[in-house]
Amino acid sequence: MVKVVKFGGSSLASAEQFKKVSDIIHSDDSRRYVVPSAPGKRFPSDIKVTDMLYECYSLAAKGKNYKASLDAIKKRYYEIIHELGIDLSLENEFKIIETAFVGRSGRDYAASRGEYLNGIVLAKYLGFQFIDSAEVIFFDDYGNFDADSTNKALSEKLSHLDYAVIPGFYGSMPNDTIKTFSRGGSDITGSIVAKAVKADMYENWTDVSGVLIADPRIINNPKVISTITYKELRELSYMGATVLHEDAIFPVRKEGIPINIRNTNSPEDMGTMIVESTSKKSEYTITGIAGKRGFTAVSIEKDMMNAELGFGRRVLEEFEKNGISFEHMPSGIDTMSVFVNQEEFGRKEQEVLAGIHRNTHPDSIDIESDIALIAIVGRGMKSTRGTAGRIFSALAHAHVNVKMIDQGSSELNIIVGVEDADFEKAIAAIYDIFVTVQL
Ligand code: ASP
Fold it and tell me: Quick check: 79 and 49 in contact, CB under 8 A?
C-alpha cells in the first residue's frame, strides 16, 4: 500500500502543527510521499507565508526596503525550527532568495519559496529525503503543466526512494525559471505525485473533517459527507463549495486513485472519500448543497417564438459576442430566460440588449438581478421519488419564492433560483428537510 499525503498551510503553520503532521505520517508506514504547502495562518488574522513572500518580493523588485518583510518570513521558519529542536540553518537559502528577489527573479519564484523552505524543514524533521520540485515537475514554454515529462521524471526519481518530501505548488519551465500553479496549487502537486507513484490513496490533510454537506457559514455544524463521487464534487465546487483545487482531480481521477480529505487536528475522523463511482448510498437522499449569489435573469418574450428556427441560437450569440457565458436557460413556449453572472453582464448589458433587439425582434425583454442559484446535488436522487417535491415544500414552508427550477438530465442535481435575500433561508430549509429531519 502506498499513500501520498498532502498537508495544507494550516496543517504546517507552527511547530505544534508539524508535530501533529509527523505523528500522522509515522503512524502509518504506507504514508511515504509527503507534499507540504507553505506555512499558513496560525490564527484568523495571521498572514500566510505565501502572501508575505509576494509582499516582500514586490518591495524588493521596486527597489524599496524589503528587509523587515524578509525578516518576518525568516522568523516564521526559525520559530518552527527552534521549537521542533532540529539542527538546521536556512541562512544560505535565505541569501540566495534575497539576491534573487533584488534581481527580480519573478513573483512565481518568490511565492514558490514558501513550499520549498517548508519542504526542507519537514524533510529534516521526518528524516525523509527532500526533492526540489523544480527538478521533477515541469511546465512547457507557454507555462502549461507538462503532464507527460513530469510523470516520467517523477516516477523515475521516486522509484529509487521509499520516503520523500516533494514541496507543493511549483515546478520549472524549460528555461529553468520557476513557475507556480494557481493559488491552492499544492493540491495539484499531491495529485501529480499520487499518479506518478501509482498510489493506492491520495490523502489530502486540511483543517476540516472532510467535505461538508453545506456551507458552515450558513448551517451551524453541518454534517460531513462520507463518500462523494468526482461528478458530485464538481457540481458542488462549481457552485462555490471550496474543498480542493479543481485541477487536482484530473491526474488521480484518470488513474482511479481515490482522494481522502482528512483533518490534521482530528486525525481519528475518517473524513471524506472522493471516488469515481461507488455502490455506497449517501446517508441522506442528497449528498450536498451549495449555492452562489449574484446572477441576472434576462427573459425574452416573443409570440410564436417556438416556431422560429434559430431563435435561441441568435439570442445566445449576443451573449457569446460579448464574452458572457450563461449558467442556465430555462424556456417556455414563447419565452426563454438566460441566467448569467450579474457582474459580467452588467459591464456589457446595453451591447447585449441592443444585439438581441436587433437580431431577434422580441416583444419584450425583462431583466431581473440579485438572484441566487442553489444546487442540490446527489447521486441518490435518481432512484428516489419525491426529491423535488420535498425541496419545494421545504422552500414554501420557509416562505421562499422559487424563481427558476432546472434539473440536470443526469438527475444528479436540481438547481433552484431564489432572490438573493432568501439565499441563506433557502439553504437552511433544504438542509433541514433532508439532513436534520431526514425525511
Ligand atoms: N501556498 C500556496 C497558496 O497559498 C499554495 C497552497 O497552499 O496550496 O496558495
Answer: no
Strand partners, 416: 374, 405
Pairwise pLDDT comparison (206 vs 380), residue with the higher score: 206
Q: Using the 3D structure, point to which of 156, 189, 207 is the last residue of a domain.
A: 207
Q: Is 171 in the pocket of ligand 1 (CB under 6 A)?
A: no
- Nearest in space to 296 (alpha carbons), one of 353, 229, 344: 344
Cell of 250: 484530473
Contacts of 403 (CB under 8 A, 6+ apart): 297, 368, 371, 416, 417, 418, 419
Residue 299's DSSP bridge partners are: 337, 366
Question: 339 CA to middle of ligand 1, Å?
Answer: 33
Q: What are the b/e assignments for 81-100, b being 16+ CB within 10 Å?
A: beebeeebeeeebbeebbeb
- Round to whole Å and give the CA distance between 310 and 307: 9
Domain limits at 363?
288-438
Q: Are 282 and 223 in contact (CB under 8 A)?
A: no
The reply to whether ligand 1 has any atom less than 6 angstroms from the CB of 150 is no
Encode pLDDT of 309-330 as tens digits.
Answer: 999 999 999 999 999 999 999 8
Distance 143 CA to ligand 1 centre (A): 18
Q: What is the mean pLDDT of residues 34-57?
A: 98
CA of 15 to the centre of ligand 1 (A): 18
Among 7, 37, 41, which residue has the most ligand 1 atoms within 8 Å of its CB, making it the best to mutate? Answer: 37
Distance CA 289, CA 23 (A): 34
Residue 409's pLDDT is 74
Q: Which of 402, 397, 428, 425 shows the shortest CA–CA distance to 415? A: 402
Per the domain annotation, does 306 fall within a domain? yes
pLDDT tens, position by position, 72-126: 999 999 999 999 999 999 999 999 999 999 999 999 999 999 999 999 999 999 9
- Domain boundary pick from 207, 229, 256: 207
181 in the same domain as 44? yes
The single-letter DSSP state of residue 334 is S
Q: Positive or negative, the Cα torsion across 81, 85, 91, 93? A: negative
CA–CA separation, 355 and 78 (whole Å): 61
Whether the CA torsion 13, 16, 17, 18 is positive or negative: it is positive
- How many whole angstroms separate alpha carbon 397 and alpha carbon 381? 21
Total domains, the chain: 2
All three cell numbers of 297, joined, read 435573469
User: Taking a C-beta distance cutoff of 8 angstroms, is the pair 300, 360 a contact?
Assistant: yes
